[in-house]
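note to self: the first set is below, dont mix up w the second
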Amino acid sequence: MSDLQVIVLAIVQGLTEFLPISSSGHLVLVPTIFGWADQGMAFDVAMHFGSLTAVLIYFRGDIGMLLRGALQVTSFNLASVEARIALAIGLGTIPAAVVGLALGDWIGANLRSPTVIAGTLAGYAVIMLLVDRFGRKERDLRSISIRDALIIGVAQALALVPGTSRSGVTISAGLALGFSRTEAARFSFLLAVPVILLATAYELTILATSEVEVAWGQLAFGAVVSAIVAYLSIEFFMRFVNRVGLLPFALYRIVLAGIVLYAFA
């Protein structure tokens, strides 16, 4: 990979990982537009590490709360809000982990086409518009239940299909369950931590057992760029979504779906 390719893809990853517009879809489309070869497993590891760093720094207070809650869960003390949220994060991670292990390779081999990406971009845009318009937006995370966690977790598993957007589908699920925009986004981003951590560990394991030559310096630079852009992206979204909602992102997805169909289908 050239340095320009690393910078462009790191910026794209950082911008789209936490905005509800599909990072996987963009990372398939951008190389196609420029005629670049697939960026490979090593690049995915670096970008996931950058995204994980960004969310850990931005939500450092919440991460501390989750760690305290996890300790309480291990002691079977579920009385506190911290423990309930930590349990919800753990349960919400299970569906994506199971589906990823069972079908991840098949999805990567069969569902990365422009037609699939256009369909998921547009289809989930409609869902985003509906739940943002009609969701009650009354609840906060103190009221989260096991049922809520599993529903949002199943929604997160759907994001393994390119074009879906992990943040978009989990925020939509949260809104459909009556959570406020800010709280739905907060839970979505916290739910990303174990998923990104598991994905990074899995990819690192594969990379460590392969004989692929890795340009570590180049990838470290890409991870730093991705982390900085992802942090700014999270900060922007958390401020923006409460005031404006999901409409601009849904419209962007619909326009992008049309461009994909016109250019690539």
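second set (the one i keep forgetting abt)
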Amino acid sequence: MSDWVTAADVARRAGVSRSAVSRTFTRGASVSPQTRARVLEAAKELGYRVNMLARSVIQQQSNLVGLVVPGFASPFTPLILDALVQALGEHGLVPLLMDSGSSSRMEESLRQLLNYRVAAAILTSGTPPLELAREYARLQVPVALINRQAGFEGVDEISSDNEGGGALAARCLMRCGARRLAYVNRPTRTDVGRQRGAGFYQAIGEAGVAGVTIETIETGDAGYRGGEDAARQLFSRPAEQRPDGVFCATDLVAFGLVDAAREVFGLRVPLDVQVVGVDDLPMAAAGAYALTTLRQDVSALAREVVQRLIGRMAEPALAPRTSRIPVSLVERHTTLSR
């Protein structure tokens, strides 16, 4: 294997200084258009690539950002990761993905991210331990939480407006004629689930619609099977005691509930029971479900996260900040038009 092409090789080929090569490949650095063109042409001819690891050692500043996720069981995880990767790339930042799905992996993720001298860390929704965020902040690594609450110094919190989303779901179901309402939450009791439930209950109380009842159940599983489990709990009752409007904490739970309602209990969706989910996963628009759901603006979430991190990287002493990104209701065929 031939030796790596160095910046000095490019400088000699382009007839410029070594520092001119460095400035050409440094975002925001000053270099004349003529010099930049010569350097880029020489780099192309030689096949030069910037050694970012070496640069981070020299400059004592990394462009790596740790992305910590609690496993990949949730279909929402790839959606937010895709948006984060794009937003980071727009600022010359490179994601380093770590899985904290178990306590042992969480400890390993922490150690590895610190070994790589990451410039910042992002903890996504789910259940990565919040102590992870506290430890990063203690070591002066800027941290952003997505759909999590912590209240730690040096940690910014960016989330969808989950309470507002719960209110949208409640108002949609009541407007469509549902009066026996249920909220189906996942068993993990995440911040997100609690917030959506709180918004759901508050909107129902504020509406003051006569004859409305409400209950909350927790599924036995966080995914599709949890929806099936919820359907058994809700629909194995006499018809007059069954809910006619159900808000599910995620689309995946809603899919399981809708399938079980139809196939196990012979119910018609939306004539017998109306259903609202959360996340607007690609399958939600498929004809088999045509699910009414809440759409999180993952692009806006990702952009806000990256902007917050960049600000904190420049000013580490900034007070913790909280941002809420609006969600929208996407009405399809699991609710009635009224």
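remember for set 2: The two ends are 70 Å apart (CA to CA).
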